[in-house]
Design goal:
- The protein is built from two helices and three strands.
- It is an alpha+beta fold.
- A three-stranded antiparallel beta sheet has the order 1-2-3, with helices on one face.
- The model has no long low-confidence stretch (mean pLDDT 95).
- The structure holds zinc ion.
Length: 127
């Protein structure tokens, strides 16, 4: 049982470390950074010419319960927003790792449970 106990403790240590790390991710943003093009509507602007896509705009795009949304990103905040989006991706990946460890812990405890019950049945002569 030493191994089972060590396995469970090792997994718990990893879970603890992962949760502690997750809780440091305080600047996340969901979404993707995209470039859109829009005509400004002025007849004399270059964007009104045929074949022009319009003025480019860097935007954060995301979806929530009410639908798809975008907000324009000013150039001076682009690095910060990009870091926040990246942080969210890292957060999601860590949560995925967390689920793998949670499942491992379940498996170890299932194994422990079955073995203990079997041993006790055997000791009592239950068939
Ligand atoms: Zn224009």
């Amino acid at each position: 049982m030493k191994t089972t106990s060590n396995d469970a403790k090792n997994i718990l240590d990893r879970l603890h470390a992962t949760v502690s790390e997750l809780l440091t991710f305080t600047g996340m943003l969901r979404g993707s950074i995209i470039t859109t093009h829009r005509r400004c509507g002025k007849d004399n602007c270059w964007c009104a010419q045929p074949g022009q896509k319009g003025h480019p705009s860097t935007r954060l795009a995301w979806a929530d319960a009410t639908g798809s949304k975008t907000r324009s990103i000013h150039e001076e905040e682009l690095n910060e927003i990009a870091a926040a989006v990246e942080q969210y991706r890292s957060f999601k990946q860590l949560r995925k790792n967390l689920r793998v460890d949670e499942q491992s812990l379940e498996n170890v405890l299932d194994e422990f449970e079955n073995k203990m019950v079997d041993e006790n049945r055997h000791k009592r002569g239950y068939r």
